[in-house]
Write a structure and sequence with these properties.
- The chain has a single domain, classed as 3-Layer(aba) Sandwich (Rossmann fold), CATH 3.40.50.150.
- Helix content is 40%, strand content 14%.
- The chain has a seven-stranded mixed beta sheet with strand order 3-2-1-4-5-7-6.
- The two termini are 15 Å apart.
């Protein structure tokens, strides 16, 4: 069975809390949804230029959410990658079947900080992925493992997008993104869910966004199959991956086993056809391979 949860995206992702309205996070949402258009003010202010300026007010929003003074936030951001790595038991002792619990329970708010540091410190790169998303995103958009919500927020402001479905295991990530969306005037354009088993989700998506997530999964090939089964025939998937634990082991939470990586690429080539885009980034665009049974 294909795992259908989303780890938080970002880099190189405590127990369930009342920060999420339910275990799935999408209560009471009807099956077929066309959300209200983004307000002109919100749509105009949530774009690449705004992201490069302040990450969509990321520092201020994160400090308020975590109840940290600005100075304390900067200290936490600087140490966030090493702090997150320290929570991981390492490649030798880590049970792949526990990866979901690691991102849902163990990391707590630590992943918010690590993701924020990554998006703020690599803003030029993230901006390019937002430009790519703007070229392809439309209709019902799945942001799988959406982390701190940079891509979900930007997608929600695009005129061709009907609704963004933000899926992430971590309850703190879900609560933070829901709060960000409301503060930025996009609350009606984003739905926040725990996993792909949520009955509120549409059966098919027009766009799938899965960035910096696949390397965190014990079965990324299975996740590719899961996406293909939920994509409309003309849908686009935006994907990247980094199956590498780092030159100094700084990313112990990444899977890099050769057999796992080989199965991933075999599945990718079997089910997807790459679409050219001119941006010089690692994120790639795909559609389903024609004639391939889903």
């Amino acid at each position: 069975m294909v795992r259908s949860w989303g780890t938080a995206s970002g880099g190189r992702s405590p127990a369930r809390s009342n920060l999420s309205p339910s275990s799935h996070g999408c209560p009471g949402v009807p099956k077929l949804i066309q959300a209200e258009p983004a307000s002109p003010v919100a749509a105009a202010s949530i774009g690449v230029d705004r992201f490069l300026e302040d990450g969509f007010a990321l520092r201020e929003q994160l400090a308020a959410f975590l109840e940290l003074a600005p100075e304390a936030l900067e200290q936490r951001l600087a140490a966030s990658c090493s702090d997150l790595a320290a929570l991981h038991p390492g490649a030798v002792d880590f049970d792949p079947q526990r990866v979901g619990a690691f991102y849902e329970e163990t990391v707590g708010t630590g992943h918010l900080l690590e993701l924020a540091a990554w998006h703020l410190g690599s803003a030029d790169y993230i901006a390019e992925t937002l430009r790519l998303q703007a070229r392809f995103a439309r209709g019902q958009v799945l942001d799988f493992g959406g982390g701190i919500g940079s891509h979900a927020l930007a997608a929600a402001a695009l005129p061709a997008v009907e609704l963004v479905w933000f899926v992430d295991l971590n309850p703190h990530n879900r609560a933070f993104v829901a709060q960000r969306a409301k503060q930025l005037g996009l609350g009606r354009r984003i739905r926040v869910c725990r996993d792909l088993d949520d009955p509120a989700l549409p059966e098919r998506f027009d766009t799938v966004v899965c960035l910096d997530v696949l390397e965190h999964l014990p079965d990324p090939a299975g996740q590719l199959i899961g996406f293909s089964e939920r994509m409309e025939p003309d849908a686009t998937a935006l994907l990247n991956w980094y199956f590498f634990k780092g030159f100094k082991g700084e990313y112990p939470f990444h899977f890099d086993e050769p057999d796992l990586v080989e199965r991933f690429f075999e599945t990718l080539q079997d089910r997807y056809l790459e679409l050219f885009h001119p941006l010089l980034i690692t994120t790639r665009a795909y559609r389903l391979r024609p004639g391939r049974p889903r």
